[in-house]
Amino acid sequence: MTLERFARHLCGLAAAVLLAACGGGGDSASCDVASQKTWLRSYMLDWYYWSGLSPNPDPAGYASVADYFQALKYTSYPGIGVEPWSYIQDSVSYNRFFAEGRAMDYGLSVNGREGVLPLKIRYVEPRSPAAAAGLLRGDVIKAIDGVADSTLISSDFAVLSPAQAGQQITLDIERAGVPQRVTLAAAEYALTPVPASATLPGSVGYLLLKDFIVQAESELTTRLDAIKAAGATDLIIDLRYNGGGRISTANHFASQVVGAVQAGKVFATLNYNAAHQAANRSFVMSGASGPAFARVVILTGLRTCSASELLVNGLRPHVQQVVTIGGTSCGKPYGFSPVEACGKVFSAVNFKAVNAAGQADYETGITPTCAVADDFSGRFGDPAETLTAAALSYLQTGSCPATAAQPQRLRRAGAEPGERRGMTAN
Question: What is the pTM of this model?
């Protein structure tokens, strides 16, 4: 369902105050700051998941819509305080990702949130400028635009988020000890949501999903059908860098994993606040051709978030064994029914998503079955890559490998460039 169609769906359910947002705030009078703050206050009181428990200050004391939005957030989120998930994004960039399956950036992501050196490239988008320049996962970054790695490691890496296509950065990297200098120009490109799959020793399938977007769905079906046809009975799902996306895509993926035997079973139920119980809805698995996978191992980390966690939680009632290997996930069982107004998309937490057993108690993250530290190197799907090797070892022995996980530095306040944390009901 597109954002526009879902907004119309909400309009049918919402009070009059939401209708202003569903209309897009098109007339200039409704898009001045004072009007937008007034609308936002009413919307949050009506549709915010923690309505009645969150602050409700007078909008007059806040200079911008963004500042007021922050002031309206719930302040008792477990282990954090101020709820960290709700956000505002311009409509163009929101729709670029969720509707078009595209990005506008350099196409590389780093291990910045760990806050330790060496600073590495952990992921390269296959169709991006970084890929075209030959950059690889595991390349060590020594400087960006002349700023040394020791300084970069404490930054928010905004340098990797260009303001417009054509903007350039220069990276000094090392590969196998050999220094290189690479200049990248930002560009718009199509994302590759399913970049890797393989059949590994021991009748094990492997699949990496980077983004829960509609463009992933046919590829998921094709690759999982091929994995099943090759005789795989167990499956490794790599979600270590997947921040989420569409619940409908997660439901599609789960349907392929569980097979036809689970068709018609509930994957997830979205529970809205007390004023909007009529909006509660369930996603039901469609089933798929071929057998179900007997055991599923999911590779996770602090960037595994939202719809990725939903997949872990949603599969557990329906699969013989679901194991997680890697690091603790981000801790977000909440999602959005986004509303567009005045050229911006407001993704305020609207619901909590529970599995078929009514469970979703992982606000502090899903703790891995086996804690194994990602070393941000190695080819995805290679049996020797650290997390993949640990998953294969677990499937072979039933025990966690003797690998101690390093402490992870989690910066919840902001995501690195390339991270898209979300779970949308469309």
Answer: 0.92
